[in-house]
Amino acid sequence: MLDLPSPYNSPEEYTEDLCDFIDTPLVSQITGGIHVNDALIRDAWQRLPEEWTSWWSLFHDHRHVQQDLIDGIRDKFEQGSDIGTEPALAEKRPQSLSSWLAKIGSLALPRNQRQGPVLTLPEILTARMNTKKIAEVSKAAAYIHAVCQRRGIAHVIDMGSGQGYLSSSLAYLFSDLKVLAIDGSQSQVEGAQLFAASLKIPKDKLEHMVHWVDGSPPLVAKMTDWSNGQKCMLVGLHACGNLSEHMLRYFATVSCIDSLAAIGCCYNHIVPASSSCPEGFPISSVLRNKNVALSPTALMIACQAPNNWGKPNLEKANERVTSAFSKRRLYRAILEKVFFDKDIRIHEGGRAAWGIRKGDLVSFPKFANRAMGCLGVGSEEITIEELVMYEKRYKHCEGQIAILWTLSVLCWKVVESVIAMDRYWFLAHQDGIEVEIFPIFDFKVSPRNLILVAEKTV
After folding, report:
1. pTM for the full predicted model
2. Nearest Cα to 61, choosing from 318, 309, 307?
3. Pairing mode, strands 232-240 and 206-210
4. Residues 344 and 381 sit within 8 Å (Cβ to Cβ)
5. Which of 223, 260, 273, 427 is buried most deeply by CB count within 10 Å?
6. Is 145 left (phi over 0), alpha (psi -120 to 50) or beta?
């Protein structure tokens, strides 16, 4: 069973509407068509619907706008904001904006945690875990073991096993399971081995392997040898980037792998399809036939969770208050405008990045000089007087830039739903495979809570 948004009963109809929505001009603009850093260069604010920008201009503090937008896409099960919109403006949101926010909600895969078994982990396992990891391992381990019992599986392969919290818990808790933990990082595997050793887990019960997961045949041979002809379940707790895609291909092609449970994350590491990577995103024929493409910005957006952001302090409601986050966004946009006007090119190998240090946001000249030093731009190319002039010219745009960024990240659930449906269709169109997607974790604890599970029927 596939958990679809309530208006839909057909995954085909849902996928059609989902892909159409992300292809609309507005969504295309805010999810990569115009990067927020280029907002001043490309007049991004003026490209938004005028009735929206006119309404937003009435707000005393742009953070009220941001909170209203975030609250506008909350699911019913999510706790509402205690901040809300400025009372005098609360009833005046343009209908077109309300409809757009409702559309996002109607197209996002449900996130209300499905009820199911959960374990109470012993302290010897939880001592090294944070609260989030405890909740995830408690739920994931219980689900995996239930599948293994139902399917008669005694071998579990944990791919992208990291520090080994899941693999060690499975091996420690369940005497009927053998576990193979695979990770591409030597240091991660060494940490996992130390954890397993502290639990006194025998090596014949839990084996660790350092191997980069790239879909190559050598790893297939190693997994097959380890299984020794027994059925296996392939699992990944927050499999980073396109690791989930490799897992789907292993599941579909390796005969010993009977079941799959994969929870994705770090979508910004997904590799799009290209001549050099023909197996990149999208991986399903359904989305490829629709020419679906997600920009680096869109993939990064899918990693966000604005519904879980901390609430801003608006006690000084009668003052125009700034925040370090919105100021950093504004300063970056102004800097890009300066570079553009001066024909200074710094993006030859991708969008430049540098660390922001304490004190960099004291003023735009301070921010710009720090950035220029990191990027190799000489101070003789841009004078202090010019930097001061640019700050005066564009400082009123802080709220606009902050709202543009918020609009962008509002699409996170929809973009993540696109990625999830691509993976669903990749398996659903193959013979002898049953596949579903549902929310396994508490969304407030783990925003990346969609699990793709599949079983072979032949």
Report:
1. 0.93
2. 318
3. unpaired
4. yes
5. 260
6. alpha
Residue entry with tokens 């080994």: 164
CB atoms within 10 A of CB 54: 10
450-456 and 257-265 as β-strands: parallel, antiparallel, unpaired?
A: antiparallel
Tokens representing residue 227 in the block: 């299984």
Element of type H or E holding 404: helix 398-409
Cis check for the bond before 282: say yes or no (omega within 30 of 0): yes
- Give pLDDT, residue 408: 95
Residue 271 has which token pair?
Answer: 């590799």
Residue in 263, 271, 245 with CA at minimum distance from that of residue 427: 245
Is pLDDT at 234 greater than 80 in this prediction? Answer: yes
Which phi-psi region, left, alpha or beta, contains residue 238 (left: φ > 0; alpha: ψ -120 to 50)? left
Q: What is the pLDDT of residue 246?
A: 96
Given a contact cutoff of 8 angstroms between Cβ atoms, the answer to whether 18 and 411 are in contact is no
Three-state DSSP class for residue 379: helix
Task: Tell me the three state secondary structure of residue 281.
Answer: strand
Using the 8-state DSSP alphabet, how is residue 272 labeled? B
Q: How many residues does the chain have?
A: 458
pLDDT for residue 83 is more than 50? no
Q: What is the pLDDT of residues 170-226, one digit of tens each?
A: 999 999 999 999 999 999 999 999 999 999 999 999 999 999 998 889 999 999 999
Query: If DSSP codes are grouped into helix, strand and coil, which group holds residue 90?
Result: helix
Amino acid (1-letter code) at residue 32: G
* Over residues 431-456, mean pLDDT: 96
Contacts 24+ apart (CB under 8 A), 24-29: 26/100, 27/411, 27/414
CA 269 to chain centre: 10
Per-residue pLDDT, averaged over 428-456, amounts to: 96
> In this structure, are strands 232-240 and 155-159 parallel, antiparallel, or unpaired?
parallel
Question: Residue 242 is encoded by which pair of tokens?
Answer: 């396109």
Q: How far apart are CA 266 and CA 282, in angstroms?
A: 16
Give which of 270, 261, 195, 191 is closest to 450, Cα–Cα: 261
Quote the distance between the C-alpha of residue 182 and its chain's center: 23
- As a whole number of angstroms, the distance between CA 139 and CA 135 comes to 6
Backbone angles phi, psi at 87, to 5 degrees: -50, -40
